[in-house]
Design a protein that fits this description.
mainly beta, OB fold (Dihydrolipoamide Acetyltransferase, E2P), five-stranded antiparallel beta sheet, 1 helix, globular
């Protein structure tokens, strides 16, 4: 990360606050619909599967697989200069929801669709920890 340009932080709002509070404690929590029992991500007020408003926050395993990914070989702005190449991925959690995230690795060429991953957390500030994933070897 560039010392002169800080990394952008997510905007925490009422819908996402439980997600970020759990992440700060290094726990991965996402919503689950009490009606259809499907897990939901990104945070919202209605289930995208059955349209119920009965969503609750649940801690999840943090285990998943790489659904798809790309290797970013150019920085996505000055704050990411010097971090390339890095992996931007869609991870499918064991519980079924998919998250856009980063795969933390020293070898971007070894990353493959279908690989098993586990969540870890990158502390960006005293208030924000970002869930990222590492390949399970």
């Amino acid at each position: 990360m560039s010392e002169s340009v800080p990394r952008p932080l997510p905007i925490v709002d009422g819908d996402s606050r439980p997600f970020w509070e759990a992440a700060k404690a290094h726990r991965l929590s996402i919503q689950r619909c009490r009606t259809c029992r499907k897990y939901v991500f990104y945070p919202r007020i209605h289930c995208p599967h059955c349209h119920s408003a009965k969503l609750e926050w649940r801690q999840v395993s943090g285990e998943g697989t790489i659904f798809t990914f790309t290797v970013a070989r150019r920085p996505a702005g000055p704050a990411f200069q010097g971090k390339e190449p890095y992996i931007v991925a869609l991870v499918e959690l064991k519980e079924g929801a998919r998250l856009m995230t980063n795969i933390v690795t020293d070898d971007v060429e070894s990353v493959r669709i279908g690989q098993k991953v586990r969540v870890t957390f990158e502390d960006l500030s005293p208030e924000i920890s970002l869930p990222v994933f590492k390949v399970v070897r």
